[in-house]
Structures are given as C-alpha cells and as structure tokens.
Amino acid sequence: MRVLLTGGAGFIGRHVLRALIARGHAVRVLDSLRPDVHGEGAAKSIEGAELMVADMRDAAAIDAALRGVDAVVHLAAKVGLGVAVGDMPDYASSNDAGTAELLAGMARADVGRLTLASSMVVYGEGLGRCPEHGEVRPAARVEAQLKAGQFEPPCPVCGKPLQSALVDERAPLDPRNAYATSKVAQEFYAANWARVTGGTVAALRYHNVYGPGMPRDTPYAGVAAIFTSALRNGQAPQVFEDGRQRRDFVHVRDVAAATVLACERHAAGVRAFNVGSGTPRSVGEMAAALSRALHGPPPVVTGHYRLGDVRHITADSSRLRGELGWRPQVDFADGMAELARL
Questions:
Q1: Which residue from 32, 132, 137, 179 has the fewest beta carbons nearer than 10 Å?
Q2: 338, 120, 93: which is closest to 222 by C-alpha?
Q3: CB atoms < 10 A from the CB of 61, how many?
Q4: pTM, whole model, 2 decimals?
Q5: Would you give the end-to-end CA distance of the chain in angstroms?
C-alpha cells in the first residue's frame, strides 16, 4: 500500500516507518517537526520515505500529502499529561482540529482507511473491583487525599479500597486531563468520518510505550525516559506517590508491529484495540529495573503527586491478539537491558 504516516519523525513514528518499509509499503511522512518535541535543528529528511514538513492544521498541505495514498496512519499529536488549564487550547488545536483537518482531507481525496494512535489515558482510572459492590469505576482522586498520602482510589459507593482490574475496550471512556480529552475527541471525530464516508478506523490505545529513541528532557518524555535520563546523570530516579501505581509498559517495536498489522488487516468498521504487554508492573518496579540495568543509585520514592495522574491503568489486549494476530515479542527484562545499552 501507499501509506501517509503523520508524526513519522517522532519516537513511535520512526519505528512504525521502519516496520512499514520492511513490509514493502511505500510511505510518505507528514510531520511538523515542532521544536518542543524534536528539538532545534531536526533533520529535514528521513531515510526510506518522502518527508513533508507541515502542520496538521494546514489543509493545503494535507491535500498534497494525501495525493496517491491508499491508507493513513495518524500518529501526529501533542502528547504529555496536560494537567494545566492553560494547556487546553494547544491540545484542542493541535490534536482535535488537526485530526479534523486530516479527516476532511481524506474525504476530499477519497482515502478510506485510517489507523489512529489513541491512548490508554482515555479510560481515566479504568476499572476497580470492590469486595462488596463488584466492578466499579473509581472516582477521581482529590488533592486532599493525595496530600495525606492516600493514593488508592476508593470505591465510589462504600469508600473501601479497590483491587485494580485489566481494562478492555468496552470500558467507559473517562478522560481526566487535556491530553486524554483530546484523544477521546480524535476517536469520536474519526468515528463521525467513518459513518459518513464508509471508511474504516482502527483506534490503537497505546499503553506506556518505551524503547530506543524515547524523547529525553522534554515535556513529552515518558516515565521510562525520565528515569533513564536521571540515571545517566548519576541521579536516583524520583518516583512519585508510593511507587505502587501500576502500568502496562510495552516496547515500541511491539507497538509499531501492532500499528502496521492494524493498517494492513483492519478492513471494516470502527474498532478500538488496546496495545499493551499484558503484564502489569508498578512504576517503582520499572525504576528499580532501570537502576539495576544502568548500575545507578536505587530509586527514591518521593510521595509527590500530580493532579490528573491516574493511579492504575493496565490493559487487556486480547482483542488485538485474537482479531489481528498480534503478540508482543520484547520481554520486559530484555527491554530494560536494551535501554541500558543505548
């Protein structure tokens, strides 16, 4: 296929680009190369693909990028947490308006296949199990609880502690920060486009992605990159809360493989797919694994917190495995060791 890959110069995008090329697809990359993501002086060419440098909100550039294309993989987005109210306009403009412009351009160009990079943050706190009330949606954590070191979200009915549960794609959407809200909006815009045009959408809800090429020392660095950067500077990783918050850390090559499979194989309707390793780990465990791999100081659990962070969010990725035949290939320990060698 001839594929337009937006955000192809980014962390995940470069791995998706290599996977697409390896599978024999012809790729055109559209990327703004915004300095807050790529740094100053970002490369103006990409090996193996045509690179168009433009903003997703530029309709004329989108029309040009879509010429002769069979499918679109849409990764371009402002990422991060987005907890400050002042962040909202940039998330809404960059992610939501940019996606709307892309979808309008796809309708004009009669391009009917979309693979959309979404995120596990659309679930908020996901689901919990109460011993009395069963499966419930945890309430949003409030600052008074966090200040008191009460990090676990309680049952919204009885206030008892919850056990976290794997979240599948049927879970209600509950975005709790500006980035999460923009991702939900992208999914809904894509579904609107598909309903009107008859197009297909695979919305990939990436969990915590790590691996070679992670951004470092930028507002977009994930927790693995932040910990790695600290350790390379001889500093102990600073772990927020009590370090027991659980995530699903999935290697970027596995994410790229899932993205390419979705582009190739999802051919009907609108479908969401979780993309996670299936093995929940705590943030403290990741920090300790990186400290060992890099022979650095052990992590320091700070008790600090950020409003808008979720406590636990871990994926049930069985739909992706069953419907598209995907399996993660990179073991967590091997992935940590690889980071240490970079």
A1: 132
A2: 120
A3: 18
A4: 0.91
A5: 33
